[in-house]
Amino acid sequence: MQKTLLVFASLLTLNLTSLAQSKHEVSLGFGFGTTNEADDAASTTMTEFFNALFLLESYSEDVKYSAAWHVGYKTFLTKKQKLAVGATFAYQSVKGNYSYSGEKAGDLHRNFYTIAAEADYRYIKKEKFHLYSGLGLGYTFGNETLTPIAGSEQKTSSGNFDLQIIGIGARYGNNVGGFMELGFGYKGIICAGFFFRR
Hints:
By secondary structure, the chain is of the alpha+beta class. Helices cover about 20% and strands about 65% of the residues. Residues about 1-20 have low confidence and may be disordered.
């Protein structure tokens, strides 16, 4: 019986040691205030400006943005596990309508898909608490569907390079926990979620 308990205790210790030296992290989160929203706002403002300048019909949109959902994977490169690199996939959608001279002209739907490489440096790394900053570089694919009240459906697609600057991020938890980040980019000005380490 003592040998069985000793073997069990040894295996448990080895397992806990391997978990304490976790090298992989998967995260799932959502954010608000993305570059997609900033780009759309800038584009709409420019369109309105030129329409007013050349006395054309005024164009406006009444839309709602979903949260920017993202899933990511990171692995630690350094022995002290402070530098983490990986990849992220993010998705955001927009739904609403568009108008000319105050009259509704149709409905619109946009989707944004981002694939990016990311890295972060954990300058405070305790057992359960990590404080870090980071950077992500990727590409955002977009598609838009316009459904006019009168006329046929119109579809367009676009793409642009995108980034995410993580000004400051905090993670709390051991093998499962939560995180919050403040920054700017495809994940948003503020984002939060959950992570899993192994």
